[in-house]
Specification:
Layout: H1 7-38, H2 45-80, H3 85-94, H4 96-119, H5 133-148, H6 162-179, H7 182-194, H8 199-230, H9 234-239, H10 241-267, H11 277-301, E1 317-319, H12 329-348, H13 358-368, E2 378-380, H14 395-408, H15 433-444, H16 456-459, H17 462-482, E3 497-500, E4 515-521, E5 538-544, E6 559-562, H18 566-573, E7 585-588, E8 594-598, H19 607-619
Parallel strand pairs: 4-5, 5-6
Antiparallel strand pairs: 1-2, 3-6, 4-7, 7-8
The structure holds protoporphyrin IX containing FE (HEM).
């Protein structure tokens, strides 16, 4: 997907996508309503409803074909910068987008055709032999398939998360079941309110609200995973246009839920008195709001996902992750909970005529009660606070950072007693990537005890600064282990590419969930390999000295680390001289943290000691912060 397209093309793409989606959801929703809600209500209104449904299906299908005529050429122009039949054919036949859109159109045409045939005059979809019911089921399955293809038309198609693709399909199916069923329900209430008995209307509404409830639960669960995959954390929500739009969509969802609750709790009971007007009006509003949410969904799918952007944090403060460790925070939480409870009760009191008087009482109570000190929950922030590392602490980045340090270092770097390239005193493993990136340029580069002349960091590009951050972090990791051969707080190993016999992993981080023993070997030093402990299986990864390719013999090794920088990076992160690294072992726990370093000359633990060692690591999580960290 390309960004910054000319306005008209952008508009055509969004219009095509929106119309296509709305028509598809409408066809699926109307068919599902007919199958699961209206099917055997067996009232004369049924014939009117079926005829109306046929007209709705025809209208939606026409809309769908118009959408195709807009979207496909627009996509061809945005992909090929040419508007020609060849370009349209190329996109339609040879791109995943084109194939999915064409397949969807075929599925919908067949589904609508089947449905029109089985909903035609005097045809009642009943289980009787030869009845159109199987055709109605097939039409629903085809339309469902057409809706599910949406995940091949959005960002999920490009993500390497297969589950995300399925969940977006489920998400959109739920959206279709709920929002696509609103118009048929509205029409059903319109026809049935004319008739004498309200029975069928109540049954249709109660059946639909169960369908709606299932759709809402599905939407919430799938939206959560999609948000994780495409928005990322808090920074993505508040620091990117994609996040803002998702917030707006969530608000729309909340409003829809509010209307649905009102329908269920206030307007549906009025049906018993034969009054369907309020419910019908509210359902019409719900459908309009639903269309708006679909519009937001389409806009969301047309924006760059938050996870691909560096979030620009808009507020001067951010949540303080350490707030919960403050001894007095319990009081503040209690105060906040009391205020929130009174506020909810106050609002709820507005529903009942007799309880409305409680609302002003709630307001006075909130005014008089002590408010929580919100400053205890936050810490200062700046636009880059939620930046994510662009280099990801890879071996290559650490080695590149080292080269940059050697290139720009002042004389001071030659002083091993006080090498300014050692940033141990600055908590750099406890700072977020964004805070560290900002601090390095805004503070350290101007006043800090920097290894470079002040202003050097500001002259480097973002990628170089991230490489320096990775190098400084690796150095701090090396310094912190060299004292006791144990890492005092949570530090990951550099991201190393690996090749495993069973081809299950390509990156060391993918071995999370298991103990890993990373062993540096050379032709002359094959190093100690730990005994097998059945309760705690260990994956052995050898790190060969690239100078002698035959070295890494791989015997008894499950995987081998590849890449020329791996050796150098592990030496820095392990606080070892590269020439003395051979034979050094690194124990990485199932959470992915470096825990223990086994030096070549160390006395090696026997099987019992080793088992105890792994057991204690498995049961004692690595602390997030060095006990005596110096806040700076
Ligand atoms: C009534 C509630 C909702 C409806 C009807 C709805 C509908 C949709 C639809 C139709 C799509 C596909 C859009 C497309 O590919 O063009 C979609 C995608 C998505 N929805 Fe929802 N949604 C709802 C609630 C939510 C909520 C509360 C969130 C939370 C953030 C959410 C997050 C997403 C995300 C992240 C995508 C993927 C968009 C992309 O491809 O980038 N949805 N939603």
């Amino acid at each position: 997907m390309t960004w910054d397209l000319p306005g008209s093309l952008e508009l055509a793409l969004r219009l095509g996508r929106g119309l296509d989606l709305a028509a598809t959801l409408q066809i699926f929703g109307a068919l599902l309503f007919t199958l699961l809600v209206a099917r055997d209500l067996g009232t004369p209104d049924g014939d009117v409803q079926r005829a109306w449904t046929v007209r709705l299906l025809r209208f939606a299908l026409a809309l769908k074909l118009i959408a195709l005529a807009v979207w496909l050429p627009a996509q061809a122009v945005s992909m090929t910068e040419a508007l020609s039949l060849d370009a349209v054919w190329l996109v339609a036949a040879h791109t995943q987008f084109g194939q999915a859109v064409i397949l969807r159109t075929v599925l919908l045409v067949v589904a609508a055709g089947l449905a029109v045939r089985c909903l035609g005059p005097a045809r009642r979809p009943s289980p009787a032999p030869g009845s159109p019911l199987p055709a109605l089921w097939s039409a629903n399955l085809l339309a469902g398939g057409a809706v599910a293809l949406q995940s091949l038309l959005g960002h999920s198609a490009a993500a390497d998360d297969r589950l995300l693709v399925w969940l977006v399909s489920l998400h959109v199916l739920a959206a279709g079941a709920w929002l696509g069923g609103l118009l048929p329900l509205w029409h059903w209430l319109r026809t049935s309110s004319a008739s004498t008995s309200q029975g069928p209307a109540q049954r249709a509404v109660s059946r639909f609200s169960w369908l709606g409830l299932a759709a809402v639960i599905t939407l919430v669960l799938t939206a959560w995973w999609q948000a994780e995959g495409l928005i990322g954390g808090l920074g993505g929500w508040l620091g990117t246009p994609y996040g803002w739009l998702a917030l707006l969509k969530t608000l729309g969802f909340g409003l829809l839920l509010g209307v649905a609750a009102l329908n269920r709790l206030v307007f549906t009971p009025r049906l018993q008195r034969g009054d369907a007007r309020a419910l019908r009006l509210s359902i019409a509003w719900e459908a309009a709001l639903g269309l708006l949410v679909i519009g937001l969904a389409v806009a969301l799918a047309s924006l760059q996902p938050a996870v691909h952007l560096q979030p620009q944090w808009p507020l001067p403060w951010q949540p303080d992750p350490d707030a919960w460790d403050k001894p007095w925070i319990g009081t503040e939480i209690e105060r906040a909970a009391v205020i929130a409870l009174i506020a909810v009760l106050g609002l709820a009191s507005l529903v009942g005529r007799r309880t409305r008087l409680l609302f002003p009482v709630a307001l006075v109570a909130i005014y008089l009660l002590p408010l929580p000190n919100w400053r205890d929950f936050v810490q200062p922030a700046h636009p880059g606070s939620f930046y994510r590392s662009e280099t990801g602490y890879t071996a290559a980045s650490i080695v590149r950072g080292q080269a940059l340090t050697l290139q720009h270092c002042t004389q001071a770097c030659a002083n091993p007693q006080d090498n300014p390239a050692d940033l141990d005193a600055y908590n750099i493993w406890q700072r977020s990537d964004g805070d560290l990136f900002d601090w390095l340029t805004r503070v350290f580069d101007t006043i800090g005890h920097s290894p470079f002349a002040h202003g050097t960091l500001a002259s480097l590009d973002a990628r170089q600064r991230w490489q320096l951050i990775d190098y400084f972090r690796a150095r701090v990791s090396g310094n912190s282990v060299s004292r006791t051969q144990r890492w005092p707080y949570a530090v990951p190993p550099p991201a190393l590419s690996i090749a495993c016999k069973d081809e299950t992993a390509l990156d060391l981080r993918q071995l999370r969930g298991r103990f890993v023993y990373l062993l540096a070997v050379s032709p002359t030093v094959s190093g100690w390999r730990p005994p097998v402990v059945p309760d705690h299986p260990v994956v052995i990864v050898t790190l060969g000295d690239p100078g002698e390719p035959a070295a890494a013999d791989g015997r008894a090794a499950d995987c081998q680390a590849t890449g020329t920088d791996a050796w150098q990076a592990m030496a820095i992160a392990g606080g070892r001289d590269p020439a003395a690294l051979a034979g050094t072992g690194f124990v990485i726990d199932p959470q992915g943290w470096l825990r223990l370093q086994v030096l070549p000359d160390d006395a090696k633990p026997d099987a019992a000691d080793w088992a105890r060692e792994l057991q204690s690591m498995a049961t004692t999580p690595q602390p997030g912060r060095a006990p005596s960290a110096h806040a700076h």
